[in-house]
Amino acid sequence: MLLIEDxxxxxxxxxxxxxxxxxxxxxxxxxxFGPNGSGKTSLLMTIMGYPQYxxxxxxxxxxxxxxxxxxINERARLGIGMSYQRPxxxxxxxxxxxxxxCAGGRDVDVTGMAARMNFTDFLERxxxxxxxxxxxxxxELVQLMAxxxxxxxxxxxxxxxxxxxxxxIGHTISRLLQRxxxxxxxxxxxxxxKERTRMGLIITHTxxxxxxxxxxxxxxxxxxxLSCSNNPTDIFNCIKVMGYEECVKCAI
Amino acid sequence: xxxxxxxxxxxxxxxxAIGPDVDLATFTAEPVRHDYVKDLKTLPVLDRDRLIQxxxxxxxxxxxxxxxxxxxxxVHAHAKQEGLEVxxxxxxxxxxxxxxxxxxxxxxxxADKYTAAAELNLHDGYVIRALPGTxxxxxxxxxxxxxxxxxxxxxxxxxxxxEGSELHVISGCxxxxxxxxxxxxxxxxFYVKKNAKLSFTMIHHWAEEVMVRPRSVGIVEEGGLFLxxxxxxxxxxxxxxxxxxxxxxxxxxxxxxxxxxxxxxxEMDVGGRIVLAAEETKAEIIAxxxxxxxxxxxxxxxxxxxxGVKAHLECKGMILNGGIIHAIxxxxxxxxxxxxxxxxxxxxxxxxxxLYLMSRGLSEDEAISTIVRGFLSVDxxxxxxxxxxxxxRAVDMTSKEVM
Lengths: 252, 403
Prior knowledge:
- The complex is a heterodimer.
- By secondary structure, chain A is an alpha/beta fold.
- Chain A is built from 9 helices and 10 strands.
- The longest helix of chain A is centred in the middle third of the chain and has 15 residues.
- Chain A is globular, with a radius of gyration of 18 Å.
- Chain B is of the alpha/beta class.
- Helix content of chain B is 19%, strand content 41%.
- A 10-stranded mixed beta sheet of chain B has the order 2-1-5-7-9-11-14-17-19-21, covered by helices on one side. Chain B has a 6-stranded parallel beta barrel with strand order 10-12-15-18-16-13.
- At the A-B interface, helix 2 and helix 3 of A face helix 6 and helix 7 of B.
């Protein structure tokens, strides 16, 4: 379980998150909506542990451990993983090596994982060097497939992705979050749902991802405040028609 | 020979154009006796380990021949493959007219006091030659080893790839653990004849109080390819070199790659100059420098003398933990229609990259050494796998030690 209590965060001198309370139970996936600059990426980066996001009050509990002051790599080891929107290029580090790093010493079939994302041609290239928006998203997903985190943070996984690949990305996220549907002779869909453990927090602008990934809750972040919590499709439809400002009034 | 000696005598006090001046008289140039070793496996273990670090494999697996010199004495020289020759230079100059024809033809004996001293005190060196049309399957390995404390070693090497041949050389320099102070002066002349291919990979592995003054010039004829790789990632008091290559035949190509790591107390002044003097010639100089307290001057000079030549220079430096990197890239276009470019950058490790890797589970130290390793790793097209592996191995060791 991820539990965030009264979290307040500053980036430099600017307050970017105010009084955030959020609970994601094992097996749950939440969608995070919000206009540009509302603090969505800040929330993900704070959960991941980026030190420039300074927690000034409140705390973050993951799997019963207070991780508020834990360094980023220890959070990764506890099972938090993130798919970035614009990750940096690391010159000379091949994508294949990066995927192996994500596996943390476990023996993984890098080529096979890349093949599922139509990404084998990129394995011998420097990670993120000259990758298009869509290529970055596929690269991030291959890394998460190797990393197998329990809490997955996705920063706009569909941005910059062409129509051909959007379904591939959507289905992969769904599988990573144990939300894909397939027939299993030994288990009912209900049983599979009950056994789901993976947690997800997905930022989306376009809502396209909702066509492929089911979610339990939607959250709207507005001016650094979590302002609304509801069925994700209801929220998305409300935003589409009324805009964010009207939509968050449901919380007031 | 008479003439060479006279010229050398006249230049014996001539300071080099760049680099701190070395007082040659503070080192001893007296010959040191070392027995010839017929079977490399009988070398003392201690020395063997140092050789391995400089890329020399005493088992000789995957090598086409070996030359080893300790201090002033040749301890081993032989070629395994037909069509290749590995001969100590003193013997070659005595026996072979062709060796004399290539001796001091590219480097001037009176260039400075170091070239002069190398002629006046010659302590051997190697001649490695591929006969016309011979394709070397494996690289030839050569090692110039400093064993006796306070020694000065003066060597002269000739590397000749005759017409249509292919030759790969790995040349390692190393010092024994008991040596504190020393001087190495090495003259090297490279001949890449018509349609020949030569790759020369030099790995330096010196000690904290060693002064190093290599002087080398190469020439590449029509259709020839010269790959020149230089790696120095261990402490050295002072290293100064500025190897030059002349592309004199149509379509000749030269590529220089260098990897430098400057440790505290080290001063490296390493350059590379390629003169494109014929049509359709191409040149590339790629340098990577990291300092964690040392001073590195990284020079590069491309001279385009004919229309249509293509040349690129790339010089990237990273300051990890104090130290100085001074990048001096130069381009000289001397004809209409040359295509020449350079890029130089000096920076630090990006925090963003460290955090990205940490979010995949690496510790901060592991993340930094992964980034350093990536920064130093260059893919060198046309280099045999064994040599790429030697370079990768050296980079791996250093990336870990940098922390």
